[in-house]
Amino acid sequence: MNAPMTMFDLGPDIYGDQRMLVLAREIASDIHPIEDIIQRHGVSREQFEAILRNPKFTRLLEDATTAWGDALNTGERIKVKSLSMLEDWLVSAYAMLHADKHSLRDKVELAKFIGRLGGIGEKGIMDTSGGERISISINMGDTVKKAEAMVIEHEQVSP
Q: E strand or H helix at 9, and its extent?
């Protein structure tokens, strides 16, 4: 995860609610080193130390750490960390696509993979135009009720 990180501009108020919330969430997730986080947000070391002493930030950090560590949140943590690693890797993937040492076949496969990550060339998750059906099951003790979705016929309209 040594790729350059995007700078965020959250405004000049280093003690603003939004900035403290974002910093608390990023620190709690422990995906990037703290030095990288404060640099990306344009906060000096002295400013960060002052933020750490702020009682509001302390509460936000405790809440974010609790939420991040929640056992029910395991799947979401894995998803976020995986996506973060992939995002950091995209810089390397870009370099690989343009490096002469890789074969055209390898570059095409990499380009396909990156395209799939971006939702290009495949049906997206939210695309339900293929006629998928929805089934809802409600467990009410000993009985199970099933409700099938109503099919609404339509013609696709081009934007």
A: none
Per-residue pLDDT tens digits for 54-71:
999 999 999 989 888 886
For residue 126, the one-letter residue type is M
pLDDT in tens, 109-123: 999 988 888 887 665
Stated pTM of the model = 0.48
For the stretch 6-13, contacts whose Cβ atoms lie closer than 8 Å and that sit 24 or more positions apart, written own/partner, are 6/40, 7/40, 7/41, 7/42, 8/40, 8/41, 8/42, 9/42, 10/41
The encoded tokens of residue 63 equal 């809440």
**DSSP classification of residue 118:** T
Residues in the chain: 159
Confidence of residue 104 (pLDDT cuts 50, 70, 90): very high
Residue by residue, DSSP assigns 83-139 as HHHHHHHHHHHHHHHH-TTS-HHHHHHHHHHHHHHTT-SS--TT--TT----EEEEE
